[in-house]
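Can you give me the bound-state structure? Components:
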Amino acid sequence: DAGITQSPRHKVTETGTPVTLRCHQTENHRYMYWYRQDPGHGLRLIHYSYGVKDTDKGEVSDGYSVSRSKTEDFLLTLESATSSQTSVYFCAISNLGGSEAFFGQGTRLTVV
Amino acid sequence: AQKVTQAQTEISVVEKEDVTLDCVYETRDTTYYLFWYKQPPSGELVFLIRRNSFDEQNEISGRYSWNFQKSTSSFNFTITASQVVDSAVYFCALSESGANSKLTFGKGITLSVRP
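Here's the bound-state model for the whole set.
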C-alpha cells in the first residue's frame, strides 16, 4: 500500500471556524491532490500540487486554500467552514503524468 | 473539457451472476488515461486498472475484465461470477495528458451482490 496518511480521520467543527486537514506521504511522489466526495457527485478535485510550493485550483476550490512547503505534506484549509463543506475529503498522490493515483483513508468532516 | 459518465447508479445482482459496469468518457485529447477504482463499504479507494488511449487491448484479471473501445468512447468493466465481496461503489475516471494527472471521476455505480 502507498504510504499516505490523512489526519484527522474525523472532525466536527462549527460554522465559521477555520479547519486544516493534513495529508502526509512517504512515497516522495510529485503530485498531490485533495478531492471531496459527496453523494451524487462522485469525487471532485479541490486543489492539487505538482511540486513544493506549486499548487493550482481544481473544479471546486472556492472556500479552500492549500499549502505544500515540503514534498511529503499537503495541507487543505477551510478558512471559515460552512455547512456546504460537510463532506468526505480524500488526499491522493501520484508520481508520473498519467499514472494511477493512490488515495488516503479519507477524512469525514462535519460542519454544524 | 473532460467528462466521465456512469449512467448506471445502482445495480443489484445475485451471487454468481455476471455484471457489467458502463463508463463513457469525453475528451479532446488524443492521449489520455482511463481508470477504475473500487470503494468498498469500509470507504477506502482501491485502484483496479489503468489504461492509456493507445492500448485498446482488453484486459482480464481473474474474474475482472475491461473492454476499452475508442470508437464508442467507452471503458466498461465486467465482473464474472460475482461475489458478495464485490459489493462496493465503482468509479471510472479519466486523466488527460499534460493535466498533472488530475482525475475526473464519474459519479460512481453502487453494486450490491446478494447471496
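A couple of observations. The longest strand of chain A covers residues 42-51. Chain A has a mean pLDDT of 95.
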